[in-house]
């Protein structure tokens, strides 16, 4: 009887134990990966889109953290603010890691690093130099305009608020904007600008493990050790947009697009240059949309092209060409002012080469096409106008003439005897109008 009771207890207990073991195994197998993004180069709309996609992905896969490895010289203000808004409102902890050694978080990169839940740097990296750069001067110079003061004060207020939210050093942050202050990893750690100095990813995970951070959902403890790492690369379209967001490429694409369209207009029927030019122009406009562009510079470049064409059609003894070159150089020089991104300006070597190429293009290629269109027709029936011939019969006023190896019915308003030299002056259907040729024309 006791044996029967024991068997009954075991029969009831074993399934429950098996269920418990199964649930424990599922819990053990459940993971929350660390999602890794690699942000490098200029902070532009493509990078902002990439980070936004990463933040969305962290919630889909229930990531334990989003780790952004960053190396940037700065970027566009709008793109930077979109990234920071995403980080500040992220329910998943965000770690910004300035790496590898030799990397930097300058300008917009400093703002983004300060906004992270955990800010870390590799040895041999630097952060700071966030002062807005202007056409009238650089950091440390006296304000030269109310606009410069407004931009600087706006940037100071923004970085100050970010530092306060994350409990970092607001005085250092303000100095990074007003004085272009820049610090090494060790100095940044000492000044409470960042939280950690990690030599590599393994060291970063080890040091970040167990840290408490505050997200929009409240305080959470980082649990990163043992979790899988999942890298999210940029998509194909994001890579294209990121590569296009460079002044040199945008500038060259714009000129090639204009060349193609103008060549098509100068030599109708070529087709391929026009199609290629249209494609280049669309890509250039896409690139210009992501860059800081001075539209006065763009207008000057277009004006220079008009001058070049006008000088070909209405020769002005080089005056229009000289004006075109001057307008082209000025427009190219101010096209990308580099107010927010000082390193994104056209080098003079590129501008000079483009100006010389443009002048040659219009002088030889487009000029040849326009001159060909203006040249008198020498083939077909239209080619008969101005041609000389011999009267085969008397023209009173109608008869026949021999022109260019063929016999034509002709009409003349002047008396023409058989054998006289004539010149074609007009066409009317299949009848040609002639007049006696002068001695010079004979």
Give the topology.
Elements: H1 2-29, E1 34-40, H2 45-60, E2 65-71, H3 77-88, E3 94-98, E4 104-106, H4 108-115, E5 118-121, E6 126-128, H5 146-165, H6 170-178, E7 182-184, H7 185-190, E8 196-197, H8 201-208, E9 212-215, E10 218-221, E11 229-231, H9 236-244, H10 247-266, H11 272-290, H12 295-313, H13 319-335, H14 348-374, E12 388-391, E13 398-403, E14 406-412, E15 421-428, E16 431-436
Parallel strand pairs: 1-2, 1-11, 2-3, 3-5, 4-6, 5-8, 14-16
Antiparallel strand pairs: 6-7, 9-10, 12-13, 12-15, 13-14, 15-16
Walk me through the structure.
- The chain has 14 helices and 16 strands.
- Helix 2 runs parallel beside helix 3.
- By secondary structure, the protein is of the alpha/beta class.
- Strand 9 and strand 10 form a beta hairpin.
- It has a six-stranded parallel sheet with strand order 8-5-3-2-1-11, with helices on both faces. A five-stranded mixed barrel has the order 12-13-14-16-15. A three-stranded mixed sheet has the order 4-6-7.
Beta-strand content estimate: 15-25%
Please provide the ordered H/E string of secondary-structure elements. HEHEHEEHEEHHEHEHEEEHHHHHHEEEEE
Largest sheet: 6 strands, parallel
Q: In DSSP terms, counting alpha (H) and pi (I) runs of 4 or more, how many helices?
A: 14
**Basic shape:** elongated
| Class by alpha and beta content | alpha/beta
Care to count the β-strands?
16
Summed over residues and divided by their number, the pLDDT gives a mean of 82
Distance between the termini: 142 Å
Low-confidence stretches: 15-29, 134-143
């Amino acid at each position: 009887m006791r044996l029967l009771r024991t068997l009954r207890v075991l029969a009831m207990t074993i399934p429950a134990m098996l269920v418990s073991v199964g649930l424990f195994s599922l819990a053990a197998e459940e993971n929350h990966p660390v999602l890794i993004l690699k942000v490098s180069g200029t902070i532009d709309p493509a990078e902002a889109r990439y980070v936004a996609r990463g933040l969305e992905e962290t919630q889909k896969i229930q990531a334990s953290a989003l780790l952004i490895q960053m190396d940037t010289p700065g970027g566009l203000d709008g793109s930077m603010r979109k990234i920071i808004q995403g980080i500040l409102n992220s329910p998943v902890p965000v770690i910004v890691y300035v790496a590898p050694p030799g990397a930097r978080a300058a300008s917009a990169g400093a703002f983004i690093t300060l906004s992270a839940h955990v800010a870390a740097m590799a040895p041999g990296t630097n952060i700071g130099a966030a002062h807005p750069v202007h056409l009238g001067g650089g950091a440390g110079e006296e304000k030269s305009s109310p606009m410069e003061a407004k931009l600087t004060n706006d940037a100071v207020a923004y970085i100050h608020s970010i530092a306060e939210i994350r409990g970092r050093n607001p005085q250092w942050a303000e100095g990074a904007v007003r004085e272009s202050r820049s610090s090494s990893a060790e100095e940044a750690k000492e000044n409470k600008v960042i939280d950690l100095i990690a030599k590599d990813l393994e060291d970063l995970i080890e040091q970040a493990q167990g840290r408490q951070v505050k997200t929009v959902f409240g305080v959470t403890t980082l649990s990163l050790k043992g979790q899988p790492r999942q890298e999210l690369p940029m998509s194909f379209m994001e890579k294209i947009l990121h590569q296009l967001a460079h002044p040199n490429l945008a500038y060259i694409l714009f000129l090639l697009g204009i060349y193609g369209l103008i060549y098509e207009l100068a030599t109708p029927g070529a087709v391929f240059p026009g199609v290629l030019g249209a494609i280049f122009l669309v890509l250039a406009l896409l690139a210009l949309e992501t860059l800081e562009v001075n539209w006065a510079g763009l207008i000057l470049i277009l004006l220079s092209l008009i001058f070049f064409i006008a000088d070909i059609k209405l020769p002005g003894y080089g005056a229009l060409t000289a004006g075109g070159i001057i307008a082209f150089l000025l427009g190219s020089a101010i096209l990308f002012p580099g107010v927010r991104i000082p390193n994104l300006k056209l080098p003079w070597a590129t501008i000079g080469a483009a100006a010389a190429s443009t002048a040659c293009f219009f002088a030889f290629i487009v000029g040849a096409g326009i001159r060909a269109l203006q040249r008198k027709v020498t083939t077909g029936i239209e080619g008969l106008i101005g041609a000389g011939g011999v009267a085969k019969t008397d023209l009173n006023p109608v008869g026949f003439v021999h022109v260019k190896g063929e016999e034509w019915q002709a009409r003349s308003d002047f008396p023409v005897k058989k054998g006289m030299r004539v010149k074609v002056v007009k066409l009317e259907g299949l009848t040609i109008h002639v007049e006696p040729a002068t001695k010079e024309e004979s």
